[in-house]
Amino acid sequence: MFKHKGKILGYTVLTSTIMLSGCGLLGGETKQKIDPPKTISVTDQKESEKQPAEKAEKTIKTELYLIDKSGYVVPQTLNLPRTKSVAAQALQYLVAGGPVTDMIPNGFRAVLPESTDLSVDIKDGVATVNFSKEFKNYQPEDEMRILQSVTWTLTQFDNVNSVKLKMNGHELTEMPVKGTPINENLSRASGINFDTADVTDITNTKQVTVYFIGGEENAYYYVPVTRRVSNNQKDNVAAAVNELIKGPSEKSNLVSEFMPDVKLLNQPKYEDGKVTLNFDENVYGSFEEKVISQHLLDALVLTLTEQKGIEKVAVQVKGKAEIKNEQGKKLSEPVTRPEKVNTGSF
């Protein structure tokens, strides 16, 4: 049961998409087979190996930032045709009525206006997108969502750090419908799905992005949300963890697996791209079995690896690292970010 906000009453535990002990989760590439069938014929085995290999050669897993029915911009990982222009293709699959139409998950919609043509030029880490005039045919309420979707879709690629926008060859300094300023290159630092409900004065604040859970039973997914926290919180990791513990806004329909009484017993420790967190026992999803919820772990790793320099997360409880997830697997090694997010509903 999701513990923050009781409106959601159940969930299906992630199994095959989760990998621990230093591997990815939520869509990371499997390093070894887990729980293989006990009996399988040689013929069946060869066929089963051949088909995925052939499919893998023809497609590439790509995150598309689509709009869900609540208006959140959410990554959904889809298998797109393999091409040399993966960045341009990803944006083409954001166009309404385009090739994504038959692939789009239930409750989601594309973000770019129908018939929009585009090109992408990547140089020195900057992706410059040139849209056709149809780009301006979007609804005013979608303006920020489009900026966020394009930016986060493109910055999933290793060679893209920031994004510039053009329309008909002319650089955009503001969006064409509501005039949202575009004063500098767009990046993930620009934020996504802003939650400023509890902020009265943003002048002494900074942004952190955390992941909560959206969707509904049998179709949950992780949603990035950008919050503003006080500049007095010097440690960005601790600030992000505190926002996860605080949980989503009561005005939203998002939920969290963190209990509100969870506490960090020490300041986060950093070493060679790894951050180590030491929680009290309230982080357990079950006090009797002393296990950590996989959804809590997923949200934690997704959140912290958004921060520069953090590649993996080690979790301790009262200084001990020998803890288990719901499947009884020991979390004996730090957990890395998945290669792709939301590869399937849970």
UniProtKB/TrEMBL annotation:
Q: Where is this region: Disordered?
A: 34-56, 322-346
Q: What is this protein called?
A: Spore germination protein GerM
Basic and acidic residues: bias regions? 44-56, 322-340
> The GerMN domain covers which part of the protein?
87-176, 237-326
Which gene holds the coding sequence for this protein? Answer: gerM
Q: Which Pfam families match?
A: Germane
Cite the InterPro entries for this sequence.
GerMN
Q: Which domain of life is it from?
A: Bacteria
Q: Which organism was this protein described from?
A: Neobacillus kokaensis
